[in-house]
Amino acid sequence: MEYRTCAVITDEDERLLGFISTDELINLIVPPSDYILVGIDAIKEAHFDWERPVKEIMNTRPLTLKPDDKLGYALEMMLETGIKQFPVVERGGKVVGTFSAQSIIRLLRIFAR
Prior knowledge:
With 113 residues, the protein is α+β, with helices and mostly antiparallel strands. The protein has one domain: CBS-domain. The chain is built from five helices and four strands, in the order E-E-H-H-H-H-E-E-H. The longest helix has 12 residues, at 101-112.
């Protein structure tokens, strides 16, 4: 996930089993024992539970988008739910991609040129 902001977990038929976004990863942070630290300093001192299985971290019932959903609908979903990343799933449950706020920013950059 170094260059991506989410991970889609599928079965061997590429059907959605779960979704991990930066929100799930943030929830994994174990705060430092010294609660005086705040902000960036607290994050630098925090620890991740690297041994935790993916199945315990992933959202097994994420909201999804369909490939033919309109951009306006995707934006509306983001605004209404506060969720910034969605798996894109076609009929039958096969994952065909992801859609995120970063996707919109990239699109705006292209049209702004």
